[in-house]
Here is the input.
Amino acid sequence: MNLAHHLLRAARSDASAPALLKGLTEVADYGRLAATVASLAASLRQRLGLAQGDRVALLMKNVPDYVACLYACWHAGLVAVPINAKLHPREVAFILDNSSAGLVFVTEDMAGVASEALALATVKPLVIEIGSADHRALEKADGIGIADVAIADPAWIFYTSGTTGRPKGAVLSHRNLLAMSLNYLAEINPIVPGEALLHAAPMSHGSGLYMVPHVLGMGAQIIPESGRFEPDEILELTKKRDGISFFAAPTMVRRLTVAAEAAGATAPGLKTIIYGGGPMYVADCKAALGVFGPKLAQIYGQGETPMTITYLPKRMHAETGHPRYEERLASVGIAQGVVQVRTVDETGRDVAPGEIGEIIVRGDTVMSGYWRNPDATATTLRDGWLYTGDMGAFDADGFLTLKDRSKDVIISGGTNIYPREVEEALLRHEAVAEVSVIGRPHPEWGEEVVAVVVPVAGRAVTRDDLDQICSAWIARFKRPKHYYAASELPKNSYGKIVKTELRTLLAESSVRLAPMA
Ligand code: AMP
Here is the structure.
C-alpha cells in the first residue's frame, strides 16, 4: 500500500474536484494534480536516476508545489524528508548528510540557506528549485504507475530536535501515516469532498502531515497567498469560503482570536481548528471558543507517533456544563482510537490514576525507529512501546494531563527547542564557563528561551557576543531572548545543574541574576 493511491483514486473518481488552491484561486483540480505527480515521479526515477527507497529532501516554505513534490516522492517509491525552513544551514546540512538525500527541492526563498548547507554537507544531492525551468520540465515527462511499496516502508522521515543536540529522524511508514489519517477522519475532523485544509503552519510538520487525510477524504489544500500565518488573511478566507480547517500551535490560536476580536470577525467558514504541539492555556482556549464557537479540537502527538497520542474532540470543548469541564480543557483529552496509551514508572509499571508517570504509546502510528540511529531507537522504543519523554497523569475517566517533560524541552510558539543545543552553541564562546538554558513562561509564545551564563573569571561577555555565536551555530528561533549573568549555577550533590531552582531564581528576579548588557 502506497499513500499515492489516495491521490489517484480521487483523480479517477472526480477529476474536476478542487485539489489545490492559493488563497481562493484554484491552482489544480485532482485530475491535474495527479497527472503532475505521475510526471514528476517519472522524472525523479528515470531522468534523475533516483532508486526506490532513496531520500528526497524538501527545503521549502509553504507553497502549492509542496503537495505535488511530496506525492511525487511517494508515487515514485521515494522517501520524503521535509525540513523545517527555519533551521540553521548547519542543521540542514546535518539532516542532508544523515538522510543521505539524493535530491533537494528548494523554494526560491530558501536558495541561500540551501547553498550554505550544501557547502557544509558531505553529500552532494541534486538541487531543483521550485518553479525553475528545470523543475517545470520535470513535470512534463510521461507519467509512470505508482511504485509498489510495502505498507511498512518509509514514507516520511520526520526530523525532531534531539536531546543530544543532533536532530533525529523518526522514520514514518505508509502504514503510520495511513493509521494517523484514518484516526483523524474518524475522530478528530471527519471531512467531505470540497472541504479544505488551510496550511497556516509549516508544511514540513503537522500541517503537512494533515495533508494526507485531506487527500484521503478528497478535500482541497489551501496555501495562503502570504505563504504563512497571517491572522487577517485567515479571517478573510473564512469569510469567503466554507469548510476550512487548519492545524495551529496554541500561539496561533491566540493571535487569531485577538485579531478576530479586534475586527469583529467570527470566521463563519471555519470548520475546525486542530490545535496542539504545545500547551494551551485554558483562558486562551475559552477566548477562542467564545469568538469562533465550538470549532476547536486538540491533539497531542509527537513526531515519533505523528499527531496521534490523545485528543480532546470538538464536542467536549462544547460541554460547558460538564462538572469537570475546566479540567478537561486543561488536559490533552483521551487516547486516540488507533493507539494504546499508558503512564508508567521507571520500572515500566503502570501508575495509578492521578499519579504522574512517563507517557508511553503503542499502535500503528508509532515510528519504526530513528533513521541510522540505533542507540536512540533502543532507548525510545522498548518492548514495542514508544517512550515519549513526556510526563503526565490520567484521571479516572481516562483524560490525560501533561505535567512536565522529562526531556526539558522548551516549547516556544509551538516549536520545540532543546536547551542542550542552545547550551552547546553558547559554550563555544571562549568567555563562557558555564551556561544553562531554560524556558520561561511567556503570555504570547507559551515559553521563551532564557540563558543564564557564568563568564570565565576575569572575562567580560556581552549579549551581542552571545547572539553572534548563536547565529553562527543554531536557528534564529532557538536564540535566547534574554541572557542573565551569574557567578555560579545551582547544582545538586552530583554537580548537576538544578534547572528547577534556576527557574525559581528567575521568577523571583533574584539579585544573583543580572540581565546582561
Ligand atoms: P514534535 O515532535 O515536534 O511534534 O513535538 C512533540 C512534543 O510537543 C510532545 O512530546 C509534547 O511535549 C508537546 N506537545 C504536543 N502536543 C501537545 C499538546 N496538545 N499539549 C501540550 N504539549 C504538547
